[in-house]
Amino acid sequence: MSFRKGVEKKLLKKEKDFETEQLMKEKRSEEYEVLEEVFDRSTLMVIYDFMNDGTISEIHGVVSAGKESRVYWAKDSEGKDLAVKIYLTVSAEFRKGMLMYIEGDPRFKSVKHDTRSLIYTWARKEYRNLRQAEDAEVRMPKPVVVKSNVLIMEFIGKDGVSAPLLKDAHVKNPSGIYQTILTYLTRLYRQAELVHGDLSEYNIMIWRGRPVLFDVSQAVCLSHPMADFLLRRDLANVNRFFSKLDVKVLPIEECYKKVTCHGKT
């Protein structure tokens, strides 16, 4: 290859790289504008940082929305699906509900009661709970990173379509799913030392024939004053749902003993 052709080839490559970079900037700008309609500047800056450092390559539409948060389908730099959960600024009423689960948790002492501090703690709490659940081999979305009010985790589903909720799924083996959920609650209690606190058919997905628990921002450690009450409520919700599917469920006290290894004190 002649010197001139070599230079031309390098210039052509630089030109193509520049065009690709500009297209990526335009695409990110469009994604940023979509988010800007909903979120404040500090939230947008967190998303922008994640896009700049390569944690997020693309961010698409909302896959779920509630009073507490919105979850977006995204992809990382390798094309792997991600779920981006963005916690919203919430009402004073919901702030009181948050406090009930945060206060009494030794992992989050001396939390300020202003909205932003509570939201940031709520996000960190869910990230921490997901980590502890993963270590205990409880099937939940695997956490990736958390910053401010943005939590990035594994996307459960395919091509931007979330796995069905237990309440909507066609369950082929309800007895097996029921036993698996009890096993997860046992591992969560004994190994992760957590109680989910809001478990029902609305917070369980079915993916590839297995249950996946999610939404654990409210999960509490065993020393929390409400841990025992919340565990019994979780068990009652699970039993209620599977009873409707003609599963022979265990009595609540037997479930409780199975999960905790001790009876009512």
CATH class of the largest domain: Alpha Beta
CATH topology of the largest domain: Phosphorylase Kinase, domain 1
Q: How many E-type strands?
A: 11
Helical run tally: 7
Q: Which descriptor suits the 3D outline? A: globular
**End-to-end distance, in Å?**
84 Å
Mean pLDDT: 86
Estimated share of beta-strand residues: 15-25%
Specify Rg, calculated over alpha carbons: 22 Å
Query: What is the CATH architecture term of the largest domain?
Result: 2-Layer Sandwich
- CATH homologous superfamily title of the largest domain: Phosphorylase Kinase, domain 1
Strand order of the largest sheet: 1-2-3-5-4
Largest sheet: 5 strands, antiparallel
Question: SSE string, helix = H, strand = E?
Answer: HHEEEHHEEEEHEEEEHH
Q: Roughly what percent helix?
A: 40-55%
Q: By helix and strand content, what is the structural category? A: alpha+beta
Relevant terms:
7 helices; globular; 265 residues; Transferase(Phosphotransferase), domain 1; five-stranded antiparallel β-sheet; 18% strand; alpha+beta; two-stranded antiparallel ribbon; Phosphorylase Kinase, domain 1; 2 domains; single chain; 46% helix; 11 strands
List the helices and strands and how they pair.
Layout lengths: L2 H34 L4 H12 L5 E8 L3 E7 L5 E7 L4 H11 L12 H21 L7 E5 L2 E5 L2 E2 L2 E2 L11 H17 L3 E2 L8 E4 L2 E4 L6 E2 L5 H17 L8 H9 L5
Antiparallel strand pairs: 1-2, 2-3, 3-5, 4-5, 6-7, 8-11, 9-10
Helix pairs in contact: 1-2, 3-4, 5-6, 5-7
Tell me about this structure.
- This protein has helices spanning 3-36, 41-52, 92-102, 115-135, 174-190, 227-243, 252-260; strands at residues 58-65, 69-75, 81-87, 143-147, 150-154, 157-158, 161-162, 194-195, 204-207, 210-213, 220-221.
- The strands form 4 sheets. A 5-stranded antiparallel β-sheet has the order 1-2-3-5-4, sandwiched between helices. Strands 6-7 form a two-stranded antiparallel sheet. Strands 8-11 form a two-stranded antiparallel sheet.
- α1 (3-36) runs antiparallel to α2 (41-52) and α3 packs across α4 (115-135).
- The longest helix is centred in the N-terminal third of the chain and has 34 residues, at 3-36.
- It contains 7 helices and 11 strands.
- The chain folds into 2 domains: 30-158, 2-Layer Sandwich (Phosphorylase Kinase, domain 1); 161-260, Orthogonal Bundle (Transferase(Phosphotransferase), domain 1).
- The protein is α+β, with helices and mostly antiparallel strands and 265 residues long.
- It is 46% helix and 18% strand.
- β9 and β10 form a beta hairpin.
